[in-house]
Amino acid sequence: MRALVIGSGGREHALLLGLDRDPSVTDLHAAPGNAGTAAIATNHAVDANSGGAVVALAREIGADLVVIGPEVPLVNGVADALREAGIAVFGPNAAAARIEGSKAFAKDVMAAAGVRTARAESVTDTSGVDAALDRFGPTWVVKDDGLAAGKGVVVTTDRAQARAHAVDVVDNGHPVLLESFLDGPEVSLFCLVDGDTVVPLLPAQDHKRVGDGDEGPNTGGMGAYTPLPWLPDGMVGRIVDEVVRPVAAELVHRGAPFSGLLYAGLAIGADGPAVVEFNCRFGDPETQAVLDLLESPLGETLAAVANGTLGELPELRWFDGSAVVVVLAAENYPGTPRKGDPIDGAGTEGVLHAGTALDDAGTVVSSGGRVLSVVGRGAGLTEARAQAYERLTQVGLAGSHFRTDIGKAAEDGAITL
Ligand code: GLY
User: Fold this and answer.
1) Atom 3, ligand 1: residue with shortest CA distance
2) Which atom of ligand 1 is nearest to the CA of 284?
3) N or C: which end of the chain has fewer CB within 10 A?
4) What DSSP designation does 183 have?
5) Which of 12, 75, 218, 284 is the pocket-test mutation for ligand 1 (most atoms within 8 Å of CB)?
6) What is the whole-number distance in angstroms between the Cα of residue 149 and the centre of ligand 1?
């Protein structure tokens, strides 16, 4: 099978590494890819958001399967263009990708499907912001109702900060969504979905704040671990039955069946799971940890979704242990990151690339905010954390920073429901 992965982040590097382990995958391509993907795949400089350009590339390389990593091409209809051209694609059409592209649409689908989520209000002009803020708090959740790559969300007890973000979003021409705050530890549950058929992967937990102890601003994600030792037996089944399957069925009912990876971001409260957000693609960095434990062949798994045969796929097999991923971020991330610095140890085992590029001399340099994600695996969280942080000591990037507590609360048994 010839596979083409669209995107350039750590998630796409993890997808390519997973595909590379599948003996049925003979040929790997990435567009646009990064310095790390260039080591295992052929990188192509293509506009990943253009359906026409991606179809042309897929035809040129004779791709049997195209896997779309990020949300923007999905929301822009790149999967639709591939399907129309008769090319197998892992990723939903634009109509189903709205579950991430429009938070108001997602709320509407959840209401119709009877799925628990936060109370929400959409505000479209500055004059409505203050009155709407009065109806929420004391913790405000303020979301950009457009694609913001996980960075458009501010969660704060500081009303002035909530107001400033809301006004900023509206001034940028997007509706702003105010939500009630959902209490309880968060879970990312990725599910393969093909219409009504739902197959969950291992549950993971992201660390969205930039600093140790969940301090500082939100980021795209600073690290993750899987599975979750504190999650009660049966909770994944409950999430599938109470949340994911009803939403998948509602999308079928609306004539927008989902085909690809449906990412449920949840808070597990006293009453059970409630949805924080849905995404229409694999999450980053959770994917780097989750796929590290997958023993089933990834190419065959993704192709089953793309070809509509997910229901016939054998049960997924997993390494019986834990994986931890720690993100190495550039100086000033999540603000405007410093770029162009050489990276030492970028080829270390377990080091996945995201914001990296090759300069004219062939040196790996930083080119984005989240630069690398470093994966460790072990029999349990303690071993997996130790390996990830040991591998990180072999990497050097001037000004970079990372969290030292990824998976620590779970390791310490400090997460309770
Ligand atoms: N891990 C957060 C995201 O992928 O949006």
Assistant:
1) 283
2) 4
3) C
4) P
5) 284
6) 7
Q: Structure tokens of 79?
A: 């999967």
Ligand 1, pocket-test mutation among 279, 290, 326, most atoms within 8 A of CB: 279
Name the 3-class secondary structure at 336.
coil
- Kindly report the CATH number that applies to the domain delimited by 322-411: 3.90.600.10
- Residues 385 and 392: their CA atoms lie apart, in Å, by 11
The per-residue pLDDT for 145 is 80
Per CATH, which fold does 2-93 belong to? Rossmann fold (3.40.50)
CA of residue 93 to ligand 1 center, whole Å:
20
Burial class (CB in 10 A: 0-12, 13-18, 19+), 168: middle
Task: Provide the residue ranges of all domains of the chain, joining segments of one domain with +.
Answer: 2-93, 120-179, 186-312, 322-411
**CATH: 3.30.1490.20, 3.10.20.740, 3.40.30.10, 3.30.70.100. Which one for 120-179?**
3.30.1490.20
Atom in ligand 1 nearest the alpha carbon of residue 150: 5
Full pLDDT tens readout for the chain, 417 residues: 999 999 999 999 999 999 999 999 999 999 999 999 999 999 999 999 999 999 999 999 999 999 999 999 999 999 999 999 999 999 999 999 999 998 889 999 999 999 999 888 989 999 999 999 999 989 999 988 876 655 678 999 999 999 999 999 999 888 898 999 998 999 999 999 999 999 999 999 999 999 999 999 999 999 999 999 999 999 999 999 999 999 999 999 999 999 999 999 999 998 899 999 999 999 999 999 999 999 999 999 999 999 999 999 999 999 999 999 999 999 999 999 999 999 999 999 999 999 999 999 999 999 999 999 999 999 999 999 999 999 999 999 999 999 999 999 999 999 998
Judge if pTM exceeds 0.90. Answer: yes
Token pair 């993971």 is found at 204
CB within 6 Å of ligand 1 — which residues?
150, 206, 221, 279, 283-284, 286
| Domain 186-312 -> CATH class | alpha beta
Please measure the distance between the N-terminal and C-terminal CA atoms of the chain and give it in whole angstroms.
Answer: 44
For 127, the enclosing helix (H) or strand (E) is: none
Residues 6+ apart with CB under 8 A from 350: 374, 375, 376, 377, 387, 388, 391
* Residue written as token pair 């340099």: 365
